[in-house]
Design brief:
Blueprint (H helix, E strand, L loop, with lengths): L1 H22 L2 E12 L3 E11 L7 E7 L1 E4 L2 E4 L1 E8 L8 E6 L2 E7 L8 E11 L2 E3 L3 E9 L2 E2 L3 E15 L4 E7 L5 E2 L2 E6 L6 E12 L4 E9 L8 H8 L8 H17 L20 H9 L4 H13 L3 E8 L6 E8 L9 H10 L6 H4 L10 E4 L6 H18 L7 H27 L6 H19 L6 H18 L2 H4 L10 H13 L3 H6 L12 E2 L8 H19 L15 E2 L2 E4 L1
Length: 588
């Protein structure tokens, strides 16, 4: 009896669980066919097998973006020729309306209900979906956008090329996940013209289990000349459609100049540059670089590493690497002592992050490390340094503003004015639109906004304002730059110039780097070394040679810059959610 009761309870629980699962809406299959046309358009057919479970709904809606924020401007596509049928070809009732930046296709009948599994075949044409680059033309398309409210069990996207193309000339990628993800799809197949052909007629991309708000993005890059790019005449015609908006850049220029003149212009300094022989206020190289041009560059971080090496915190060894066509170099960094409180926050941050993770023993096995080396890392292994570089930059900005060289943190001042002025730009567009009575749309709007934003960006970049102390310090630094860059024959004209020796050379070398005159500075000290300095090895052979040393130093700076900068993408590169199309939908 007990077993029977237990069985009945289990059966009831299972039925309730099954009912909950059955009640959940989902898309069993999401199949998309995209036909690329040579006339700068695509034809799309979406087959959506929508499972309502046991819920009663009127139908589904499909939101398709047609206005995109593409970098600094807004991009439009035209969506037309919309039709909706079932799997047998019978038409559904539907309506098309604008919903924000989307075209909403609402399918179904408000007076009727549907339940269970229904198939919706949505077809439409999109004009101007391509991205035209210098060397290739690209379809960058979100097949599944991040706005579906239900999970998708299986999705297959087939992209048909406008003509058969040698597969070596086609680049294709597919990404899935949340926005910004670079996770590749589970499958991609080539469709060749025939069994013996090397020419592609299409590609198939597949992904299973896409969660609600998940994305499936495809990129297909073709050689130039296959897709017909809009002509110059068409572009000019679009440009001339809206005339009133063309005053936007002029107004922006006037407003920005007045604002900069009143709020961003530096106070006057002495007005003349006097040669200086040392660094003002014991500033670090990065502080000197940021005071001069109001910005922190990768070369400033490279100079800081050299500066810390000269102070004995690390050692830099240049490693020659043989290549097929030319030699290259890597750099071994060895931490000789820990960061301490005598260093500014940003220098502690640099040391802590440089040596956060050591290179593998396998990579280091061929190198003779210092006995007192605490951690060793190859510069080429710092592939994510750009992530902590932002923290270092912020601390440098905080330092120069806290010391009174700027009225406000340069980065914050730049961001504040830029954001406020972009908001003002949006208001100004609305005002001009109201005055003209035109709904601005097209090439003229884009160009006007881009030019206006360029004006705002340039002035906004120069809105950080130096204090009187900052202006005098900048002039002092420029006087030091003149001393560092002078030719040897002109050096005799300087009075009371410091004696040339290795210590003086090393003390000012990082500052010469941030000021871009390290070659001239090194030239003045030709032959002062009898071998290598103790903080660097392999930068030149034998006695000190200016040309060898600065070439190696520039190579170190270039590789460091690539480590501290975000990665760039190629023609087939991208991420989930970065293309056109997309959107989503749900039931109603």
């Amino acid at each position: 009896m007990k077993k029977t009761i237990l069985f009945l309870f289990s059966l009831a629980g299972g039925l309730l669980l099954a009912q909950g699962v059955w009640a959940q809406e989902k898309i069993d299959n999401y199949g998309v066919d995209i036909k690329m046309n040579i006339d700068s358009s695509i034809n799309i057919t979406e087959r959506i097998d929508y499972n309502f479970g046991d819920l009663q709904r009127h139908g589904i809606y499909r939101d398709i973006p047609y206005i995109y924020q593409d970098g600094l401007f807004t991009r439009h596509t035209d969506i037309s020729q919309v039709s909706v049928v079932d799997e047998t070809g019978h038409s559904y009732g539907f309506s098309v309306s604008n919903s924000g930046n989307d075209k909403r296709i609402k399918i179904g009948d408000a007076n009727a209900y549907v339940t269970g599994l229904k198939t919706y075949v949505i077809s439409y044409k999109v004009v101007h979906p391509y991205i035209f680059q210098k060397d290739y033309d690209q379809l960058y398309w979100d097949v599944v956008g991040g706005a579906w409210t239900v999970p998708i069990i299986s999705s297959v996207a087939t992209v048909w090329l406008p003509q058969a193309i040698d597969y070596n000339n086609v680049q294709a990628k597919c990404y899935t996940g949340s926005f910004g993800s670079d996770t590749e799809c589970s499958g991609m197949r080539y469709l060749f013209e025939n069994d013996n052909s090397v020419k592609l007629s299409g590609l198939i991309f597949q992904q299973n289990q896409i969660s609600p708000e998940g994305i499936l993005t495809v990129l297909v890059s073709l050689p130039k000349g296959i897709i017909i790019e809009p002509s110059s005449g068409q572009k000019v015609a679009n440009f001339l459609k809206e005339n009133a908006i063309l005053f936007l850049p002029i107004i922006s220029l006037l407003v920005m100049f007045i604002l900069w003149y009143k709020r961003g212009r530096d106070p006057k300094g002495r007005g003349n540059i006097i040669v200086q022989y040392d660094v003002p206020d014991n500033l670090s190289p990065a502080e000197v670089g940021s005071i001069v041009d109001e910005n922190v560059h990768s070369q400033d971080i490279s100079a800081e590493i050299v500066y810390l090496a000269i102070q004995g915190y690390l050692k830099i060894t240049r490693i020659e690497k043989s290549g097929i066509l030319k030699k290259s170099a890597d750099y071994l960094l060895e931490k000789l002592k820990d960061e301490d409180n005598s260093l500014p926050d940003y220098e502690q941050e640099i040391l802590a992050n440089l040596f956060h993770k050591a290179s593998s023993q396998e990579k280091l096995k061929d190198y003779q490390l210092e006995a007192k080396a605490k951690v060793a890392v190859l510069l080429s292994d710092l592939d994510e340094a750009y992530q902590w570089r932002k923290i270092v930059d912020e601390k440098i900005y905080e330092s120069v503003s806290a010391k009174g060289y700027f009225v406000k943190n340069p980065k914050q001042a730049r961001a504040k004015y830029t954001v406020l002025l972009f908001v003002a730009l949006g208001v100004l567009v609305s005002v001009l639109q109201g005055i003209s009575g035109n709904n601005f749309n097209g090439f003229a709007l884009y160009i006007s906004i881009i030019v206006s934003m360029g004006i705002i960006a340039v002035f906004g970049w120069h809105m950080p304002r130096r204090t009187a102390k900052g202006v005098l310090t900048k002039e002092y630094i420029l006087g030091l730059k003149e001393y560092l860059s002078v030719a040897e024959k002109d050096r005799l004209e300087f009075h009371n110039a410091p004696e040339k020796n290795p210590q003086h050379f090393e003390a000012l070398l990082p500052y010469a780097m941030v000021l871009g005159v390290e070659k001239q500075w090194a030239k003045q000290f030709e032959g002062i070394y009898q071998g290598n300095p103790n903080w660097c090895v392999g930068f030149y052979a034998g006695n000190f040679m200016a040309s060898d040393f600065t070439n190696s130093l520039n190579s170190f700076g270039a590789q460091a810059k690539s480590s501290f900068s975000p990665p760039t993408s190629s023609g087939a590169g991208g991420f989930a959610g970065g293309g056109g199309g997309g959107g989503g939908g749900g039931s109603w």
